[in-house]
Amino acid sequence: MAPLITHIYTADPSAHVFNGKLYIYPSHDRETDIQFNDNGDQYDMVDYHVFSLDTLHPSPGVVTDHGAVLRMEDIPWVSKQLWAPDAAYKDGKYYLYFPARDKEGIFRIGVAEGPSPHGPFVPDANAIPGSYSIDPACFVDDDNQAYLYFGGLWGGQLQCYAGNTETYNPSLQGPHERTGDQPSQGPRVAVLSSDMHSFASPPVELPILDPETNAPIAADDHDRRFFEAAWLHKARGRYYLSYSTGDTHFLCYATSSSPLGPFVYGGRILEPVLGWTTHHSIVEFEGRTYLFYHDCELSKGVDHLRSVKVKEIFYDDEGRILTTTAD
Fold first, then answer.
1. How many helices (H) and strands (E) does the chain have?
2. Which of 38, 110, 191, 276 would staple 200 via disulfide (CB 3.0–4.6 Å)?
3. What is the pLDDT of residues 125-152, one digit of tens each?
């Protein structure tokens, strides 16, 4: 599968259908001299572009780059690293959610509002109160209630927060996480307020349960435990929480009858691609279901220079997502 976008490097694609058109909200990779490290310092992004296209079948149509719709210098609370964003629509307005380091080097989540899917987006002066870590993903349910899913280990700092607390422990920065038979850390979810700019209640952890034992997946089970890149979509009356396992490079999913869980592990979606990890989204468009992801093929394996790709995926008769490879 060829990259969708080749004139700049893009990663972490969040795909949405607005007004019958497909929009992609990725992070924007750029060249840097910062050496690879597990804290993620080499991912030194400073702005967001929005892309759109009219069709994916039988082949992708022309991709339109709507330009940089939000820049780091426009956001008062940010110091660096505009990482993976997401977008949402509710009640006539569009929202762009994004993580970044604040002036103290701690990742928070911000929100910007705009009149159209490609902005212009105006950011709030401050991060969302009570927010932390990275990889926000906004899901607006059929009843118009919106939720924000987020969290990422290691460079994403989720391991610095114990339980459902906002207290940051700086001694746990870097590649630390729970070990052994301890329950692995799950992503966080917060119910969003009606105006989409704050949390209606404090974030809570979403444990991912083993289907055999009904216990949280163990911390040492790196093939199945959550690492980053939570994404929620709904299909066939079921909620699918998908995520990256990080250092083992799988995309996996779990299912629930509620957007607030509990979620039970369901299987893998994508086998490893070229690059340290991947970050994805799943969207229905033109009657088909598509997986958006990224790899480093275009940059010939340079980990921090990634490119967005897309492929169709399928469910079996019981609603399980069929495991696939990138080709």
1. 0, 21
2. 191
3. 999 999 999 999 999 999 999 999 999 9
Cα four-point dihedral sign 259, 168, 44, 120 = positive
β-pairing, 281-285 vs 288-295, is antiparallel
- Domains of the chain, by residue range, sit at 10-322
8 A C-beta contact, residue 218 and residue 275? no
Q: Active-site residue 12, yes or no?
A: yes
Is residue 228 among the annotated active site residues?
yes
pTM of the model: 0.97
The CATH number of the structural domain formed by 10-322 is 2.115.10.20
